[in-house]
């Protein structure tokens, strides 16, 4: 619910908007990238035509004391670090909002794109997640594919 509200504030919401999801699952995490159109004209000046929303879901029960992540979206690398993050198991947590690297990439998205068309626009999407807890340091890389 909070993610939806935040997205509406950032992008503007309309009932008939399209969106696309890329996702992948590793041993410990599920990584998600949503491509959402910006429908609010006043926000398009600084966001552009679309935004990328990155999220993680912890799929196993383990402690996380600190976490760093880097996403590769074509040639863009949004990333960050969370100290004492709250990642409840089986709950999707938004970790970043980013915009396409180029205007051409942003304008390539439209309603009704096929899986092949989406893969042609975003040729490489992956997340690398590194985390620490009392038992050590861990890392997982996940390649994301277009969701059906």
Descriptive account of the structure:
This protein has helices at residues 2-11, 41-47, 103-107, 115-121, and strands at 20-25, 29-37, 50-58, 66-73, 79-83, 92-98, 125-133, 136-143, 145-146. With 148 residues, it is an alpha+beta fold. Strand 1 (20-25) and strand 2 (29-37) form a beta hairpin. The longest helix is centred in the N-terminal third of the chain and has 10 residues, at 2-11. It starts with a helix and ends with a strand.
SSE layout and pairings?
Layout: H1 2-11, E1 20-25, E2 29-37, H2 41-47, E3 50-58, E4 66-73, E5 79-83, E6 92-98, H3 103-107, H4 115-121, E7 125-133, E8 136-143, E9 145-146
Antiparallel strand pairs: 1-2, 1-9, 2-3, 3-6, 4-5, 4-7, 7-8
Physical arrangement of strands within the biggest beta sheet:
6-3-2-1-9
> Residue share in helices?
10-25%
The ordered H/E elements are: HEEHEEEEHHEEE
- Strand proportion, as a percent range, falls in 35-45%
Q: Structural class, judged by helices and strands?
A: alpha+beta
Distance from N terminus to C terminus (CA atoms, Å) equals 22 Å
> Which ranges are low-confidence, i.e. pLDDT below 50, for 5 or more consecutive residues?
1-16
In total, the number of strands is 9
Note the total helix count: 4
Backbone CA Rg: 16 Å
Oligomer: single chain
Tags for this model:
single chain, 148 residues, alpha+beta, 4-stranded antiparallel β-sheet, 20% helix, disordered N terminus
Summarize the structure.
With 148 residues, this protein is an alpha+beta fold.
């Amino acid at each position: 619910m909070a993610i939806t509200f935040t997205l509406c504030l950032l992008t503007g919401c309309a009932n008939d908007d399209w969106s696309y999801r890329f996702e992948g699952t590793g041993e410990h995490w599920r990584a998600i990238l949503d491509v959402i159109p910006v429908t609010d004209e006043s926000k398009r000046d600084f966001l552009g035509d679309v935004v990328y929303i990155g999220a993680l879901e912890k799929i196993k029960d383990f402690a996380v004391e600190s976490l760093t992540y880097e996403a590769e979206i074509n040639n863009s690398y949004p990333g960050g670090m969370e100290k004492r993050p709250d990642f409840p198991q089986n709950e999707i947590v938004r970790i970043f909002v980013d915009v396409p690297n180029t205007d051409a990439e942003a304008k390539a998205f439209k309603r009704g794109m096929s899986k092949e068309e989406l893969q042609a626009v975003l040729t490489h999407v992956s997340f690398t997640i590194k985390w620490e807890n009392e038992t050590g340091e861990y890392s997982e890389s996940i390649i994301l594919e277009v969701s059906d």
